[in-house]
């Protein structure tokens, strides 16, 4: 047996142990999840590179650029090209998903060329219909753009775009829910509490939230939960999670309220869910950039969400009761 074959076998054995030991999903549910992910990842990658999407992306990026200028102005950020330490900047560029925040040109900023043949922008997250929403899910979250409700933390504009992978078109009028933990790694215990809410997706499929960077909590890599309910919320929801570079998490968690988070830290690389969203040509982490010179100015993070509108999933979400006690 060749060495590479032995290695593959070892990896299969390892991942089987992971499957059997999974705290949230049964083995069957996990297999289904993986299959949906693999199909969706391929489809979303193709959509992001399609000529149909190009026009939408162009206009969306213009809107996003305008939004960033607006955020900088509103937060009093003096942003100049020379203001930043060059070395630390280069270090970030080589190791993270941070985009070129110094450029005034949206084409550099969002890694998108107006006049080039479209190519896949690889930051994406595939949402699949699930029978289980995991812990902390609350229906009837309020409609709001700003989720912060007074929570302390580093400001984050989370800019998402929903794409129907069956048509490669932006999904308009879908209900997009987002929820995540606060700086201490705690979720609000009711539907109207902090760091929860929904918006309707725009004509370009976008839903942008003002929130804070999520804190970590025991047993999971840092993430934001998202559901999308197509057709004005009437269709069954697709669920997914959004992940962040460990680099940006580490920098942010050295500040303010995050410093008092005593929960166990789990890295992306050790997470059970995160790797399922990746493939060799697909990157499940958000792309991001600092809003200004200082971490306290906040970050802009963006990602495409792939949804298969033909896939209805199960009729009713179910929440695992054994997770209920975790609702803090
Ligand atoms: C909902 O949760 C928030 C934060 O956890 C709390 O401040 C608020 O009082 C709660 N509201 C209700 C109705 O329980
Ligand atoms: C979308 O869902 C349908 C129904 O489950 C399935 O037949 C199809 O393969 C899916 N398409 C993609 C791109 O995932």
UniProtKB/TrEMBL annotation:
Read off the InterPro entries from this record: Intradiol_dOase_core (IPR015889)
User: Where in the sequence is the signal peptide annotated?
Assistant: 1-21
Record keywords = Dioxygenase, Oxidoreductase, Signal
- Protein's name in the database: Intradiol ring-cleavage dioxygenase
Question: Is Cell cycle tagged as a keyword?
Answer: no
What molecular functions are annotated in GO for this chain?
A: ferric iron binding; oxidoreductase activity, acting on single donors with incorporation of molecular oxygen, incorporation of two atoms of oxygen
Organism per entry: Clohesyomyces aquaticus
